Amino acid sequence: MTATLTETGYDQAAFEAFIAERGHEPDWVRERRVAAFSAFQQADWPTGREEEWMRSNIRLFKLEKFVSPVAAGATDSNAPALLTRNVELGGRLRSVNGRAVESSLDDDLAAKGVLFGPTDQILAEHGDVILGALGEGVVNPTRDRFAMLNASLWSGGATLYVPKGVVIDRPLHALASLKGAHQSDFAKTIVILEEGAEATLLMESTSEGDDEGLHCGSVEIIVGKEANLRYVNLQNWNDRVWHFAQQRAVVHELGRIQWTVGALGARMAQVNQEVALAGQDAEAQVNGVMFTHGKQHLTYNTHQHHQAEFCRSDLLYKAALQDTSRTVWRGMIKVDEAGQRTDAYQRNDNLMLSDTSRSDSIPGLEIEADDVRCTHGSTSGLVDETQIFYAMSRGYTRQEAVRMIVAGFFQQVFDRITIESVREALGDAIGRRVKDIPTG
Predict the structure, then answer these.
(1) Could you tell me which residue ranges the SUF system FeS cluster assembly SufBD core domain spans (predicted)?
(2) pLDDT of 179-204, one tens digit each?
(3) How many distinct structural domains can be found in the chain?
């Protein structure tokens, strides 16, 4: 049954107060919030009867435990950034519990018409510009109850708008953190590159402490004609955070996106990541790195949607699992009838670092065109004891040997990532998490 959540700000009265507090928002934003909240009130939580959720258990998730965006407030943050080591940035954004605490953009970029900052602020000040480019939106706001929750109560997040022909040669960075018991982050991220624009956006999330938390977010990306976006999303919450997200990019004619995902944290993650190739000769490269331990459960549903001819997509996800953790990857390549001469590839590899971990790998194809090249594959296996013995015979400890093997396993993904700081951050973070593998 649908829950009534009057004590924590998810009821009708609290929603109306939330809307009134945000009187600076454009009418079109408010109208979308109202429609989504109405749908949220009438919807039920996902169940195991649905394909996307049949391997995910949310029975222990209780929304009423978490502070809603209605009550959340900003606070100071000391969270370290992992992706910006030795990187000269063109702008930065920092938020805590869904509220911005720092925002800056270099003057030369602002003079060219670039917009970068908290989504709330950008929509309040430049709502017409964003609406003109975003239209009805990119993600489905009623896909499930978590999508409805974000669409109605989103707060914070980052928005980047790059005008036609503008090339940003310095990365932009956004860091979101959760701080305090039962805090929440309902971020909405919007990235829009107009025709011929180029940009690099580094985004990461982290927890300050070991408190339980909630992230319910969305990412909407539009890559215009002949535009080029490098987008990195590092999810590094602590192991007590529930992480739900809807993420989708639309790439137009001759546009290109390189989308890198690092999934290291969260108690449970349920993410829908989609790329729609909507214009001829559009291209997408998707890189995924997952590392789990303890009782973590990470589910990533990826979708490569070829809507136009001569498009290319290349997806590679790799996961290493320790302890009793579990990963689920469901990949789908869908080719519309108009998607002739498609070249699409997807692969998922899993390295089991314990006998009690589990990986579910489910690739899929749905092809309506008759002139395509679509391939997919998946592998899962344990660490080879012979490799460990060989490294130990050369003077390495057992843990050092395991760490080398894990690093080698992920190297194929790292080689595809063109940003050195991202490669180093992911490698260091994984290396610190690797445990010894018991013999026998």
Answers:
(1) 180-409
(2) 999 999 999 999 999 999 999 999 99
(3) 1
